[in-house]
């Protein structure tokens, strides 16, 4: 049994020191997922509150399209938020629906690979933690669907686009969780990559998405630590446990790097999304940030990253690393990954099985509404 032994996270860690490594950088990287990224979330939250107090002069109600566009551009330039009541270019609205919906679908489909281990978690405590985590992902999906709904699309339409396959979800959830160590690897790497990607989204120009991301990132940081702790126990456990953890990291490393999307040169939406301040950093910038964080954490875990070419580059002040297989990413996105069919079949079945719950909830809401109407004023 290896789920019950919670020790201090860094007890007995045999850190392999690389003499060429810049230690200041290493300390910063080790701290990055703790105070660093959460500090950025707090700063984004403060900036949101501050932006709400400033106002770029509103466009008049009868303004023509050019004046509305000028107002929109001024709001973006002033780092204020576009709110649902504001005019926005149709392409901005559609880009947000695409990205927020894909994000929401990812949270919902992302419950499957981890849910796979709830009944087999190695202790009651591990099971309770994993249950809470998977439940959080459902909550994240709900915040994000609610944010997308403010753009004038209904929940039913969004869900239909997922189950019909018209909208995507993150490539990463099409990989299988083969052992208990995969739960740790998903937490450490997948949630870690998700946080690196999502912290800048707390500063997204669309208010409802930015606000949802602040809450998601705070919760996601616990998820990352949960995975880190699972791997820490295994990485310092018996030789068999360490081998299981290493095998999981070997399988999840490159798919996690691919989560950030195609390289900048092939990213179709980045330039426009950055101009609109939906995205704040390019796919490659965030991927690099993630790699730089993971190297030091892997050492603490007593594990290695499966990249023989991973090297500190003093000139760039960043690690050189091997890119993920982007052809594989495109295959997985287009539906041909190891678990795409299984994930979609399960989601469709769950949706069909839940029809009676939706009907009952709608009937209850209708009854409440008619009861309220029946009450004399
Ligand atoms: N998987 O122009 P690009 C999570 C698509 S974490 C699937 O660079 P963009 C969670 C992209 O949609 C995961 N598709 O696009 C964690 C576009 O396709 P279309 C979810 C991908 O939008 C733990 C095309 O490739 N996170 O939820 O500028 C537990 C060209 O790409 C992927 C988010 O969704 C991919 N990996 O940048 C549970 C974060 N990468 O529509 C849950 C929000 C690219 O033109 N999203 N594509 O056919 C984003 O930050 C951005 O949408 C991306 C892509 C960085 C992912």
From TrEMBL:
GO BP terms? phenylacetate catabolic process
Where are the annotated segments for Disordered?
1-26
Kindly state one GO CC term assigned in the UniProt record.
cytosol
Q: Which molecular function GO terms apply here?
A: phenylacetyl-CoA 1,2-epoxidase activity
Q: Which domain of life is it from?
A: Bacteria
Where does the record place Basic and acidic residues bias? 14-25
Q: May I ask which residue range the UniProt record assigns to the signal sequence?
A: none
Q: Which SUPFAM superfamilies match?
A: Ferritin-like (SSF47240)
Instruction: State the protein's name.
Output: Phenylacetate-CoA oxygenase subunit PaaA
| Native source species | Pilimelia terevasa
The coding gene here is paaA
């Amino acid at each position: 049994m290896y789920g019950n032994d919670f020790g201090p996270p860094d007890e007995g860690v045999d850190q392999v020191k690389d003499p060429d490594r810049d230690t200041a950088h290493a300390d910063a990287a080790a701290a990055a997922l703790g105070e660093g990224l959460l500090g950025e979330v707090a700063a984004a939250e403060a900036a949101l509150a501050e932006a709400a107090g400033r106002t770029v002069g509103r466009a008049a109600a009868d303004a023509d399209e050019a004046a509305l566009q000028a107002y929109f551009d001024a709001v973006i330039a002033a780092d204020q938020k576009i709110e649902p009541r504001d005019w926005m270019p149709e392409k901005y609205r559609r880009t947000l629906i695409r990205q927020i919906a894909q994000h929401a679908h990812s949270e919902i489909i992302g419950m499957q690979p981890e849910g796979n281990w709830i009944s087999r978690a190695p202790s009651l405590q591990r099971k309770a933690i994993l249950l809470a985590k998977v439940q959080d992902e459902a909550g994240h999906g709900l915040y994000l669907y609610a944010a997308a709904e403010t753009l004038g699309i209904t929940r039913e339409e969004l869900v239909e686009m997922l189950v019909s396959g018209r909208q995507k979800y993150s490539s990463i959830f099409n990989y299988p969780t083969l052992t208990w160590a995969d739960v740790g690897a998903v937490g450490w790497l997948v949630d870690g990559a998700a946080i690196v990607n999502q912290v800048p989204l707390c500063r997204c120009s669309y208010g409802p998405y930015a606000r949802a991301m602040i809450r998601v990132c705070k919760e996601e940081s616990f998820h990352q630590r949960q995975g880190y702790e699972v791997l820490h126990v295994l990485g310092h456990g018996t030789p068999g446990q360490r081998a299981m953890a290493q095998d999981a990291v070997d399988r999840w490393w490159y798919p996690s790097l691919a989560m950030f999307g195609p390289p900048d040169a092939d990213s179709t939406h980045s330039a426009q999304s950055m101009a609109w301040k939906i995205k704040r950093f390019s796919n490659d910038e965030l991927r690099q940030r993630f790699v730089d964080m993971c190297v030091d954490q892997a050492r603490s875990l007593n594990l290695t990253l499966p990249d023989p070419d991973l090297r500190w580059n003093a000139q760039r002040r960043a690690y050189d690393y091997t890119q993920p297989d982007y052809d594989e990413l495109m295959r997985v996105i287009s539906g041909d990954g190891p678990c795409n069919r299984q994930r979609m079949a399960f989601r469709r079945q769950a949706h069909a099985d839940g029809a009676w719950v939706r009907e009952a909830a709608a009937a209850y809401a209708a009854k409440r509404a008619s009861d309220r109407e029946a009450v004399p004023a």
